[in-house]
């Protein structure tokens, strides 16, 4: 019999000073986790039970989908990452170390290189494919700013899976199987989520979806259709170009105007009385080692992921002040496309720039701008394409009405990798005709510890956590109001034993604390059902209270087990 007095559940009354969001506050206050260092946590007994239940759901759905569990090393030789091209490309988030022989290693943030090498060395025939391998393991990323408790950590628990197929059609099936499994997993753990189109980022690949838990503290913006099923994260969402009606193009010749100290869009609109939509924002970007001049409308924001994908680049950043001056001869804030040599510097623009007929640009001279500018007449653009962030009210790119925004936390991600890793790492197979072909891969990740935090973020009130039954550390909290009263203590022990024998997980609060302290801790820990044993037990009844609704009824002890089972089945 699990007695709370003997368990390590260090609850706190005060809110931790470094906790900014509900899930972080409650993880610590309810005694589920403790921080060892920035972004590094210990999982205490209650927190571990929740993690184990999430993992059990993940395993169940992955196994049903035909994936096989294994465990790979966290410590990975640098040469694997060099072979895939990611040793430098992954950046400072990769935790690097040398062993005693000065050989470089990484602590794995993910395992594409390791699993590809493993499968390459063990499988060489189409007869042994397809295969899908997964693991649940601690991962490491040296986050520049760990925050929000388990939402963004440097050490975290992740489920990662990798599929290997012989054809694109096979990959499509593996991908869909994983997409369906993820939908089942996040439904079963009790999350309100959306699957959204996403960019593959440093992992690479196409056909990428993120599973986003919807909550206001989410670091990602989700663009979704007000009608239909379309959803994408902000960096991926496509912008529909609706060309403006042709206007009278008889615009005055370009005219240089003095704008001392006026650099920003806001300053220009205020000082000149122009609309932001008529300003052409000129951004000097460094795309890998190449300088590119990017033009977007003044009321729009550049989407650097779209720019990166346009050039198939590894890195995109804004050029430094010195690099801007070297490229166009002007300080940041006064850059424009007029006079820029398009043979030396690519001039590319978002689609909506071409509709501007009377624009304002920087003059490539400090404290000056040029008005009455018209694209095509006064300067030439190499490429018009979708380069901006989508905005609320834009048309849905799939015909689903207008776009609206929501916030979300990424809890899962599925990728179609194709041959991104199999080709450079030599993972090939012989087809039925004896020809060597690269394996076609997919990868699929779930942030297990982040899912725990996301569930708390969506399921809490001012008193504490409200656990979904599927992952609650225990189903029922049995609390005698006064453990010193023999009748209450004995009844609590007997009922705990009967509930446990019936397959119901029980936490029995036998502590010699005041009833108010017990009730506060019970609400804080947030088990689905609380059974309170008072003097009424002498009449054969106990109080059963549902944590989520607050509904409380007196139930006869002879009917308690059936009543609790019925409640748990519908919560």
Automatic annotation (TrEMBL):
Source organism superkingdom: Bacteria
Subcellular location: Cytoplasm
Pfam families cross-referenced by the UniProt entry: HGTP_anticodon, tRNA-synt_2b, tRNA_edit
A molecular function GO annotation: catalytic activity, acting on a protein
One Gene Ontology term, aspect cellular component: cytosol
InterPro entries, A to Z: aa-tRNA-synt_IIb, aa-tRNA-synth_II, aa-tRNA-synth_II/BPL/LPL, Anticodon-bd, Anticodon-bd_dom_sf, Pro-tRNA-ligase_IIa, Pro-tRNA-synth_IIa_bac-type, Pro-tRNA-Synthase_IIa_type1
Catalytic activity as recorded in UniProt: tRNA(Pro) + L-proline + ATP = L-prolyl-tRNA(Pro) + AMP + diphosphate
GO aspect biological process, one term: prolyl-tRNA aminoacylation
Record carries keyword ATP-binding: yes
EC number: 6.1.1.15
Root EC class: ligase
Keywords: Aminoacyl-tRNA synthetase, ATP-binding, Cytoplasm, Ligase, Nucleotide-binding, Protein biosynthesis
Function: Catalyzes the attachment of proline to tRNA(Pro) in a two-step reaction: proline is first activated by ATP to form Pro-AMP and then transferred to the acceptor end of tRNA(Pro). As ProRS can inadvertently accommodate and process non-cognate amino acids such as alanine and cysteine, to avoid such errors it has two additional distinct editing activities against alanine. One activity is designated as 'pretransfer' editing and involves the tRNA(Pro)-independent hydrolysis of activated Ala-AMP.
UniProt record similarity statement: Belongs to the class-II aminoacyl-tRNA synthetase family. ProS type 1 subfamily.
Domain notes from UniProt: Consists of three domains: the N-terminal catalytic domain, the editing domain and the C-terminal anticodon-binding domain.
Self-association state and partner proteins as the record states: Homodimer.
UniProt-recorded name of the protein: Proline--tRNA ligase
Gene name of the record: proS
């Amino acid at each position: 019999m699990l007695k709370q007095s003997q368990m390590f559940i260090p609850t706190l009354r005060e809110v931790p000073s470094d906790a900014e969001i509900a899930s972080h506050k409650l993880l610590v206050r309810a005694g589920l986790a403790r921080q060892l260092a920035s972004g590094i946590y210990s999982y205490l007994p209650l927190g571990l039970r929740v993690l184990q239940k999430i993992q059990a759901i993940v395993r169940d759905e992955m196994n049903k989908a035909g994936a096989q569990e294994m465990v790979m090393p966290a410590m990975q030789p640098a040469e694997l990452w060099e072979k895939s091209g990611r040793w430098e490309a992954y950046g400072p988030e990769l935790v690097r170390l040398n062993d005693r022989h000065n050989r470089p290693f990484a602590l794995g943030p993910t395992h594409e290189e390791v699993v590809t090498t493993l499968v390459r060395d063990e499988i060489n025939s189409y007869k042994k494919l397809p295969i899908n391998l997964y693991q649940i393991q601690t991962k490491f990323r040296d986050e520049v700013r760990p925050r929000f408790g388990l939402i963004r950590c440097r050490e975290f628990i992740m489920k990662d899976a990798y599929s290997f197929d012989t054809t694109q059609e096979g990959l499509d099936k593996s991908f869909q199987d994983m997409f369906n499994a993820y939908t089942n997993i996040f439904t079963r753990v009790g999350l309100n989520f959306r699957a959204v189109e996403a960019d593959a980022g440093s992992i690479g690949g196409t056909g990428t979806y993120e599973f986003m838990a919807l909550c206001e503290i989410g670091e990602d913006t989700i663009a979704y259709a007000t009608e239909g099923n379309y959803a994408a994260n902000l960096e991926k969402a496509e912008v529909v170009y609706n060309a403006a009606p042709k206007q009278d193009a008889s615009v005055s010749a370009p005219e240089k105007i003095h704008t001392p100290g006026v650099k920003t869009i806001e300053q220009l609109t205020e000082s000149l009385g122009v609309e932001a939509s008529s300003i052409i924002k000129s951004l000097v970007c460094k795309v890998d080692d190449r300088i590119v001049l990017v033009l977007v409308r003044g009321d729009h924001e550049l989407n650097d992921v779209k720019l990166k994908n346009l050039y198939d680049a590894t890195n995109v950043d804004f050029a430094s002040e010195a690099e801007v001056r070297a490229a166009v001869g002007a300080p940041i804030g006064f850059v424009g496309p007029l006079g820029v040599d398009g043979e030396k510097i690519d001039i590319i623009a978002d689609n909506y720039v071409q509709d501007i007929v009377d624009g304002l640009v920087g003059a490539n001279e400090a404290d000056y701008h040029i008005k009455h500018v018209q694209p095509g007449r006064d300067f030439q653009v190499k490429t018009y394409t979708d380069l901006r962030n989508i905005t609320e009210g834009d048309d849905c790119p799939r015909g689903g009405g207008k776009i609206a925004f929501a916030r979300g936390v990424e809890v899962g991600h599925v990728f179609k990798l194709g041959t991104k890793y199999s080709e450079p790492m030599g993972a090939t197979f012989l087809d039925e005709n004896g020809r060597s072909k690269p394996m076609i891969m997919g990868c699929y990740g779930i942030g297990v510890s982040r899912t725990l935090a996301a569930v708390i973020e969506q399921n809490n009130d001012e008193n504490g956590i409200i656990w979904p039954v599927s992952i609650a550390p225990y189903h029922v909290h049995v609390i005698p109001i006064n453990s010193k009263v023999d009748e209450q203590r004995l009844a609590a022990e007997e009922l705990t034993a009967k509930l446990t024998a019936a397959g119901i997980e029980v936490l029995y609060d036998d502590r010699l604390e005041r009833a108010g302290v017990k009730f506060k801790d019970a609400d804080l820990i947030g088990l689905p059902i609380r059974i309170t044993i008072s003097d009424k037990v002498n009449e054969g009844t106990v109080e059963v209270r549902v944590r989520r609704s607050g509904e409380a009824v007196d139930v006869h002890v002879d009917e308690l087990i059936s009543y609790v089972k019925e409640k748990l089945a519908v919560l």
